[in-house]
């Protein structure tokens, strides 16, 4: 097995452990069925008394077979491993750990974030824990939407069932946990928006580019642009900086050309020199 494969399985193990902690410490004890097979297993646990981990494993079998057919054997092996580990961790930790809070709001916040971080690590390692997060990856494969959005769509039905089984208030807390899980998954997979991209349109593009490279030690890309109203050709600058450097960048541009047109936007992830390095 290649080194990358080992790293992937280590990541899947860590991710399933974090997810199981979110379930055992916060979500399941407080009857927060935050979507997915884990949410459905939570409902069945309180209705029939079935173990949550074992129930998740049984419910995952048809989804695993579907994912195996569409996404391939390599993904299937990692999904099988992630599914088994999450079930084992969940039922094992239940024997040793107890919920630190009975406050449904705190449980939905911390449980949702912890589960999302864990699932994000699993996804980033090329695996899945089965359930509707596998369904979300299948959505992404066919519909080209993010895993977090796919998870949000699929899990709405489970939350509705939880509302009918428990009560509407717990369903609302489950929805909050689900939204936090979705955001955490996308943050782990795509980055937390730590960088900013600036598009600068100015008649003094050369002077601004030199100052950015000298003062901020950042690269600048010059793009050919043309104002459709004026028909004037001019160079457009593209600069990517850290959030802490945005104020300095704007001050630098304003000092050279107060009339410059500047667009600043969030960047999910930046790979390359000066930012996050490529994973090998």
TrEMBL record:
DUF2179 domain mapped to chain residues: 218-272
Superkingdom to which the source organism belongs: Bacteria
Entry coiled-coil feature ranges: none
Gene3D superfamilies in the cross-refs: 3.30.70.120
Annotated localization: Cell membrane
Transmembrane segments: 7-28, 48-68, 105-123, 135-153, 159-180
InterPro entries: DUF2179 (IPR019264), N-reg_PII/ATP_PRibTrfase_C (IPR015867), UPF0750_membrane (IPR051461), YitT (IPR003740)
Any Pfam family matching the protein: DUF2179
UniProt keyword annotation of Cell membrane present: yes
A GO CC term assigned to this protein in UniProt: plasma membrane
Keywords assigned: Cell membrane, Membrane, Transmembrane, Transmembrane helix
Listed name of the protein: DUF2179 domain-containing protein
């Amino acid at each position: 097995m290649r080194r990358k494969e080992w790293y992937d399985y280590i990541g899947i193990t860590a991710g399933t452990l974090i997810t199981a902690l979110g379930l055992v410490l916060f979500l399941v004890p407080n009857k927060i069925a935050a979507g997915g097979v884990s949410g459905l297993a939570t409902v069945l646990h309180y209705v029939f008394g079935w173990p949550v981990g074992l129930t998740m494993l049984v419910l995952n079998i048809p989804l695993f077979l579907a994912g195996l057919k569409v996404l391939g054997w390599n993904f299937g092996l990692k999904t099988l491993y992630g599914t088994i580990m999450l079930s084992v961790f969940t039922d094992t930790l239940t024997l040793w750990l107890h919920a630190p809070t009975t406050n449904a709001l705190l449980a939905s916040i911390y449980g949702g974030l912890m589960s999302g971080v864990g699932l994000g690590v699993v996804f980033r390692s090329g695996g899945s824990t089965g359930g509707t997060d596998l369904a979300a990856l299948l959505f992404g494969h066919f519909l080209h939407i993010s895993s977090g959005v796919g998870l949000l769509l699929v899990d709405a039905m489970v939350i509705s069932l939880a509302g009918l089984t428990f009560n509407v208030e717990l369903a609302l807390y489950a929805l909050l946990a689900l939204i936090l899980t979705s955001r955490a998954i996308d943050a782990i997979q795509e980055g937390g928006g730590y960088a900013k991209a600036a598009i600068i349109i100015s008649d003094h593009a050369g002077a601004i580019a030199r100052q950015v490279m000298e003062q901020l030690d950042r690269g600048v890309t010059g793009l050919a642009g043309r104002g459709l109203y004026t028909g004037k050709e001019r160079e457009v600058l593209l600069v990517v900086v850290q959030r802490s450097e945005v104020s300095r960048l704007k001050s630098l541009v304003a000092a050279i050309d107060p009339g410059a047109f500047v667009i600043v936007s969030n960047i999910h992830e930046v790979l390359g020199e000066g930012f996050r390095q490529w994973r090998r």
